[in-house]
Amino acid sequence: MIALAALALALGAGPARADDLGDLLRQGDLVLITPTADGRVQGVRTWSWYDAPVDVVWQQIVAYDAYAEWMPRVHSVEVLGRGEGFVDIRWTLKVPGPKLVFAARYHVDEASRTIRGQWLEGALEGSSWTWHLVPDGGGTRVERELKTTAVTDSWLLQQFDDRWHTLEFGINAATPIVEAQGMRQALRGRR
């Protein structure tokens, strides 16, 4: 939250308080990128707000088979299996060059409205992500954390990236933002 306080100060909003976060999110999504010591992307955290109750947003996120309808770059999703507190999913992502195919395990905690995705096999080795949903002023605040190897797993993308890792930063920062836009469009269609 220190980074959010710094962002709020930079935007002239003064010191950030918990209720300020909701106000900021109603204006747009927030992104925090954590770099590695060698200047690559270590992780991305985003905060988004949706004008829908937490139960509605949760149902959209756990409708895994529908991801290709609203989640950017998703070509297809297949549920491989389910168990106590988890769902295994195979994703196919549309990227330049061959499509990226990988499997992930979603650790689903409905009580806390949290899903932790963890790479199992295929492309994006070592990637992980988390969604955490919180009721916020009649809507829903979603905190998302993303650690991915999307650029390093695509030979073609590597050819276009530079020493500053411009594509790596751009793709990793943009992915959760366009995902948030897709979620908003999907939620409008559910009303």
Structure at a glance:
The chain has helices at 2-10, 18-25, 54-61, 67-70, 155-160, 166-189; strands spanning 30-35, 41-50, 74-83, 86-93, 100-109, 114-122, 128-136, 139-147. The protein has 191 residues and is of the alpha+beta class.
Describe the protein's architecture and organization:
This protein has 6 helices and 8 strands. It is α+β, with helices and mostly antiparallel strands and 191 residues long. Mean pLDDT is 81; it is low at 1-16. It has a single domain, classed as Alpha-D-Glucose-1,6-Bisphosphate, Chain A, domain 4 (2-Layer Sandwich).
State which percent range the strand residues make up.
35-45%
The figure for the number of domains is: 1
The number of strands is 8
Assign the CATH architecture.
2-Layer Sandwich
N/C terminus separation: 33 Å
Unreliable stretches: 1-16
Strand arrangement across the biggest beta sheet: 1-2-8-7-6-5-4-3
- Helical residues, percent: 25-40%
